[in-house]
Specification:
Blueprint: E1 10-13, H1 25-34, E2 39-42, H2 49-65, E3 70-73, H3 76-81, E4 86-89, H4 96-103, E5 108-113, H5 116-125, E6 129-132, H6 148-156, E7 166-170, H7 175-185, E8 195-198, H8 200-203, H9 208-233, H10 241-246, H11 248-258, E9 261-265, H12 271-281, E10 284-287, H13 291-300, E11 303-307, H14 313-329, E12 332-336, H15 344-356, E13 361-364, H16 366-375, E14 385-386, E15 389-390, H17 398-409, E16 412-415, E17 420-423, E18 428-431, H18 444-458, H19 463-482, H20 490-503, H21 506-511, E19 515-517
Helix pairs in contact: 1-2, 1-9, 6-7, 7-9, 11-18, 12-18, 12-20, 13-14, 14-15, 16-17, 18-19, 19-20
The structure holds the ligand Cc1ncc(COP(=O)(O)OP(=O)(O)O)c(N)n1 and ligand 3NM.
Domain Thiamine phosphate synthase/TenI: 10-202
Cofactor: Mg(2+)
Family: In the N-terminal section; belongs to the thiamine-phosphate synthase family. In the C-terminal section; belongs to the Thz kinase family.
């Protein structure tokens, strides 16, 4: 028999000791397959060979019924005895080369890897796939160390994109961390995980079918986000900064022609201003802070703004729902982590948002970006935070910070201040437009997030262009408003600012931009 073609998307790894007491392991396996499990590994540490073989035969009868491959953990003899579709071995077990020799060329062989070097060795040793772990803390075994999505990424990047080696991640994978793990671990070489391997998240769940359905849907959403990012944003496809700048007049004209609808979960202080700014620039806002509307809206809006300025439980629920549905619909998510480091609640919410969805563009002041850098383990410099406003100019090398956070989060980062910085991890620019009055009215940063969201709707495959265009458009409006004779202070500036967003011409986006590559 030739080697089966394997779908690695949702890989169940069993452990009878962790199986939910309400059912047998066989029931867990069957329920999980009915919920979408695509591959099963029988991993039973406490059974002797005879009992393991007997259980393996029973499990194989179930998996064969659904045409799902069964692999045996560690024990090649059992795999051969029951004619399983393959086996999985660890670094401390029989070698991969020996396992392949015993199994022959037509069985599936997987090996555990925790370093890029182990992954590269697996390429040479005849494995079909690698299990990359341990990703997160797990109760199922004592990990040597945890990799997190960034450690997983380093291993994916060690495997050439065109190599047939498949990859799954293992260790602490649950429905609420799957999406981020998959989207954030994607390598710069375009490699995205082929699947997730799960023990307790399935066998220990109250309902293994429902748990499997959720995990599979989260895996697919993470995979889609990662693939979308690389389709539009891989280095080969990235437009040069010069071409991006040249595209701005057309972007603004198209924005006005199409008037894209953006879903705002904004804050009480700026809701009216962000709605008016969106309209003035040419877009259409819908201010809808209820989670119950998020799914319906995700089908009709073009992008979403999540603003944590005035946090309540229902705002948080709505932001999480809106972000997830936007991801599922392929709509851009713009995150404005207002005052992210000011309180524990804001910090936790920021973390929860980044973990629960793929954020396409993060827009913040230096303090907010610093908090995100720290939360995501990015080795950037820190600055202090007080209230929702950032202190001082922030970083000694702001361009390096935005670039590092963008690279780590696989997204675009826009850091606003006297000079604004935008990076997608590869392209980084500094924008020198704007007026001091923008810093003296509340909500000017939030309005920038709204403008970015409108441009992201027009430029779905280049969010870097959208972020730069959004900042530039509002900064030019700020300059024009600040220069008006009728503007005598922040109050009159606020009205003039909105007027000048509406008056901005596409040509001014080209002729008045002071943007340089950094
Ligand atoms: C898919 C997958 N990845 C990794 C492992 C771990 O295997 P191993 O290192 O042999 O550890 P134990 O399973 O023996 O605890 C796995 N089983 N499956
Ligand atoms: C079996 C196994 N192997 C790991 C590795 O790092 O190689 S982590 C792990 C346990 C995974 O269990 P859970 O899904 O319950 O966290």
């Amino acid at each position: 028999m030739s080697k089966p073609i394997v779908d690695y998307s949702l890989y169940l790894v069993t452990d009878s000791g962790l199986n939910h007491p309400s059912r047998t392991l066989l029931q867990s396996v069957e329920d999980s397959i009915r919920g979408g499990v695509t591959l099963v590994q029988l991993r039973e540490k406490e059974l002797d060979t005879e009992a393991f073989t007997a259980l393996a035969r029973q499990v194989h009868a179930v998996t064969k019924k659904y045409n799902v491959p069964l692999l045996i953990n560690d024990n090649i003899d059992v795999a051969l005895a029951i004619d399983a579709e393959g086996a999985h071995v660890g670094q401390d077990d029989i070698t991969c080369v020996e396992a392949r020799r015993l199994l022959g060329p037509n069985k599936i062989l997987g090996i555990s890897t925790g370093t890029p070097q182990e992954a590269q060795k697996a390429l040479a040793d005849g494995a079909d796939y690698i299990g990359i772990g341990t990703c997160f803390m797990t109760q199922t075994k004592t990990p040597k160390r945890t990799l997190g999505p960034i450690g997983v990424r380093a291993i994916l990047e060690a495997i050439p994109a065109d190599h047939p080696m498949r990859t799954v991640v293992i260790g602490g994978i649950k429905h609420d961390n799957t999406r981020r793990t998959v989207s954030h671990s994607a390598g710069a070489n375009g490699r995205v995980l082929d699947g997730i391997a799960v023990v307790t998240g399935i066998v220990g769940a109250v309902d293994a079918k429902v748990a499997s359905e959720q995990l599979l849907s989260e895996f697919k959403a993470g995979y889609e986000s990662a693939s979308h990012y690389f389709k539009g944003e891989n280095s080969a496809a990235r437009a040069s900064i010069e071409d991006v700048l040249k595209s701005f007049p057309q972007l603004l004209s198209t924005l006005r022609e199409k008037s894209p609808l953006t879903h705002h979960i904004s804050n009480y202080v700026v809701m009216n201003d962000t709605a008016n700014a969106t309209l003035a620039l040419g877009g259409s806002p819908i201010m809808a802070p209820s989670a119950d509307e998020a799914e319906d809206l995700s089908k009709v809006v073009s992008s979403v703004v999540l603003n944590i300025g005035t946090l309540t439980q229902s705002f948080v629920e709505c932001m999480l729902a809106a972000g997830k549905h936007a991801n599922a619909q392929g709509k851009a998510v713009v995150f404005d982590p207002v005052g992210a480091g000011a309180t524990k609640l804001r910090e936790t919410t920021t973390s929860n948002i980044l973990n629960a969805m793929h954020v396409d563009i993060i827009k913040g002041n230096p303090g907010e970006i610093s908090t995100i850098a720290n939360l995501t383990g990015c080795t950037a410099e820190s600055i202090a935070m007080r209230g929702v406003d950032s202190l001082g100019d922030g970083f000694s090398n702001p361009a390096a910070v935005v670039q590092a956070v963008a690279k780590r989060e696989n997204c675009v980062v826009a850091m606003t201040g006297k000079v604004d910085y935008v990076s997608d991890g590869v392209r980084t620019v500094a924008i020198n437009n704007g007026h001091p009055y923008q810093g003296r009215i509340t909500g000017s940063g939030c309005m920038i997030a709204s403008a970015i969201a409108s441009f992201a709707a027009i430029s779905p495959n280049d969010h870097f262009a959208a972020a730069v265009a959004g900042i530039l458009a509002l900064n030019l409006a700020g300059e024009h408003a600040g220069a008006r004779d009728d503007v005598r202070g922040p109050g009159t500036f606020r009205a003039a600012f909105i007027d000048e967003m509406a008056n901005l011409t596409p040509e001014q986006m080209l002729t008045e931009a002071r943007i340089k590559t950094v």
